[in-house]
Amino acid sequence: MSITDPLSFRAGKLPLLISIPHAGTRLTPAVEAGLSDAARPLSDTDWHIPRLYDFAHEMGASIVIGNYSRLVVDLNRPEDDQPLYATATTGLFPETLFDGRPCFIPGKTPSPQERQSYLQHIWRPYHQQLQSELVRLKNQFGYVLLLDAHSIASVIPRLFEGQLPDLNFGTNSGASCAPSLSEQLIECCQHQSSFSHILNGRFKGGHITRAYGSPQQHQHAVQLELSQLNYMSETEPYSYLPERATHLQQLLHQLINRMLLWGENHYQS
User: What confidence tens digit (pLDDT) does each residue in 53-92 have?
Assistant: First the structure.
């Protein structure tokens, strides 16, 4: 089986790396052949996140994007597939969708050998790129900021009650970044009233935030999970809605500026 271009990467000139692990829609032949009817629309994709954050590269941020669907292998799960949450979740090789329906037709899941190939040729290259860029930026600036960018449907009863807040910040309960950085992000959100927000609520950060966030090493990671209703249609064909997205992008621009300003001030003092 040939796996090509597992990721897209654009280097920047700021001490900021944006990781987008779940926007990919590519499938391997084995996964495509085995998907259930419920899974074929790829509903659990972080739809349009690269487009939503495209302005950040123009600002000077580095961006790495996974090209393959999370139904092939989930880039935001640990290699040993240890659960990240005590509540309902999905694993390194998802067997169910977020709503609990099966991803695969019975007897049609990819073989263990195929999945090991996905780990080797999709998961590891993504994390190697993350690691190498974090090292490059930290060597250049003395510190580095990592924003792990995600989105999810606003209502998923299996995962959380009611409607999800619009912006869900995760810092591994405060372990993945300096408290003063998350305080700056929350303060920025408090200066507007259009979007609700929460820190370390249902989503505290996945593997990427937990593995690469190390304030003691001058490496600060924040996960931001966006409610999809604010920039796209939550039903097929999951269309991007520019008139909604523009308002959200303005806030994202402010948040990224806050991160960068915090870094300058924190490491100059």
Answer: 999 999 999 999 999 999 999 999 999 977 766 565 678 9
3-state secondary structure of 122: helix
- The model's pTM is 0.96
Query: Which residues are within 8 A (CB) of 218 and not within 5 positions of it... i.e. 6 or more apart?
Result: 138, 142, 143, 144, 267
**Which residue type is seen at 104?**
F
Tokens at 46, concatenated: 């972080």
Q: Which amino acid is at 173?
A: S
* β partners of residue 147: 18, 222
Domains of the chain: residue spans and CATH = 7-268 (3.40.630.40)
Extract the tokens encoding 18: 């944006």
Which amino acid belongs to residue 155? Answer: V
Residues 6 or more apart whose CB falls under 8 angstroms from that of 243 comprise none
- Alpha carbons 201 and 224: distance in angstroms, whole number: 11
256 φ/ψ angles, rounded to the nearest 5 degrees: -65, -40
Q: Is 149 helix (H, G, I), strand (E, B) or coil?
A: strand
